[in-house]
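Thread: L-homoserine complex, take 2
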Amino acid sequence: MLKIRIPATTANLGPGFDSLGAALNMYATLTFEDCESPLNIYGCDEAYINTDNLIYVSYYKTFEYFGERVKNVKIGIESDIPASRGLGSSAACVVGGVAGALYQMGRELDKKVMLEIATEIEGHPDNVAPAIFGGLTASMQVDRKVFTRLFPVNEAIVFVAFIPSFSLSTSDARRILPKEIKFSEAVFNASRIPLLLKSLEENDGLLLRYAIQDALHQPYRKKLIPGYDEIEKICIENEGYGVYLSGAGPTMMCISDKKTSLADVQHLLGDLSQQWIIKALKIDEEGIQILRS
Ligand code: HSE
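Output below.
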């Protein structure tokens, strides 16, 4: 039996669209074991107990990747990562499915191999890379090859997640993006990314406030998120350094430091049309972990 733990992730971090991502200390725990029937899934909502389950789809595709016959499997799911909220629940499923398949094939759980297969399944590496390696990663895809590097995050940095009661599918949030952008918008983002990484390393709140800004996706996506401007204002007025849309949203992420009182602003959200819960999270440095094999 294989038992693994995979962290939640927050992608883009403002200007780093489809490249930057960070692992957070909120987890999904999955088990994979032999089974007499082709597939047995337990521990999740009835709606996910079928062959369209993303963990199983990724498991299946990993066998196909190696040209091997798919083995029967029993999959156990236990997850604290909310689905379709921009916190990497899909990436956790994909990475878990790939790892489960490698194990069931008797192969090594090599992180580079996992990254390549998981990126192919997910379509972009920004969430899967930190889910595998932990920490803050910047990634790029060149044909089928994926390059990923880790960047340090200051110990004082806290990621305060504002998680709404409504969900948003990544495909809807990608459909709303423009086909083309202006040269000045590309410069806006490109100039911010290295300074954002430095501000996270040095815990520099003022630099971060401006370096976290984005011109490529958030201006379009915020229209899908009622309360976006209000939450941004609440964060900045309560010692938040800066705010961005976590992945494709709808979770809004406020970066702050450990002295912040942001986790206590719940009472300020009462007038918003949607319900939001606040969770203060830290970077997970481990990435996928094998708990038992
Ligand atoms: N980079 C992706 C996006 C993250 O913003 O669409 C969601 O998978």
